[in-house]
Amino acid sequence: MIPYDEALSIILANSSPIGIKSLGLAKTTGYVLAKDILTKHNIPFFDNSSVDGFGIRTSDLVNSSPESPAKLRLIGTIQAGDLPSIRLLPGTTIKILTGAKIPDSVEAIVMKEYAKESGSYVYLYKVADKWENIRREGEEFRMGSRVISQGTLITPPVIGLLATLGYNKCSVYLKPKVSIIVTGSELVKPGKKLPKGKIYESNSYALVSAFNELGIYDLNVVTVKDDKKLIKKHLKKALRSSDVIVTVGGISVGDYDFVKNIVSSLGVKTLFTKVAIKPAKPNYFGTITDKKRFKKLVFGLPGNPVSALISFQQLIKPAILKIMGTKSLIPFKTKAVLTETLSKKPGRLEFVRGVLEQKNDDLLVQPTKGQGSHMLSGIANANCLIYFPKEQKSLAKGEKVNIELLDWNK
Question: pTM of this prediction?
Answer without folding.
Answer: 0.87
